[in-house]
Fold this protein.
Amino acid sequence: MLVGASACGGGGSDKASGDDAKASGKPSASASPSPTKPAGPPMLLETITPQTGTTVGVAMPISVIFTNPVAAKARATVEKHMKVSASQPVAGAWHWMGDKRADWRPKTYWPSGTKVKIDADINGVSNGNGRYGVHDYTHTFTIGDDVRADVSVTGHTMKVTRNGKAVRTLSINAGSAQYPTWNGTMAVIDKQEKVHMTSCSVGISCEKGSPNYYDLTLPWDVHLTQSGTYVHYSTGDPNPGSGSARGSHGCVHLSMSDAKWFYGQVKQGDPVTITGSPRAKAPADNGYADFNLGWDQWLAGSASGEGTTATL
């Protein structure tokens, strides 16, 4: 589970928090180490996303956050102990986003209807830095309808499809020349009916007199990046489209009715692909932008390489 800045624009780091896979307790001080289990402080997982029992989109990776760094020499072994199974076998691979986060994604999007299981069988496994796994973790989730949104910054449109069929084309405004929107494919992180957004939280402006200052609570917010990109309604741009020519601070603006409708269509893991912006693609670890890396780039960050899921 990722938590990031609640405002459009700005830089920002990728941080994780949550309790969906958090280990509890500490090793008993009175217990003698088992001869079959190595002594040492525990290697724990902070989170596994998606949460178990959820239904997610076709671009959703499995994202595992460790509480402590995993050494490069231990990553191949750790990967092999994090087994991915699926009801429709697919090719995929792990990729390390630094030394605490490992994501698994299929080579191409998941097929709709696939049931997926991640078994993190890390009990006794070393992280290469003197820590050893003391728990096993299992998450199961389902891939839902194939919902995609394709945003054209220059065309001021968002085309929404479901299972390959066009649903609606919405009018949008994206970032300004000063604060352009990220290009690329970003899987939905989460969504909220209201989000408090401030320019200060993303380093745009903390001065109330500045033309770029804002402190607003805005509705129908679909979260795309940790650095603060959302698809949402903005009171400062109530009728977006090519006629209004209003630029955002990096977010994608919809009208109130369109924002509410889009909010009701999407779920975590649905891909939103933005083209036509002068900005680069969002970094893969800026939320769940894993598909912004080509397959060769993805494999370059894997310790064990491409594999095919076991069959559920």
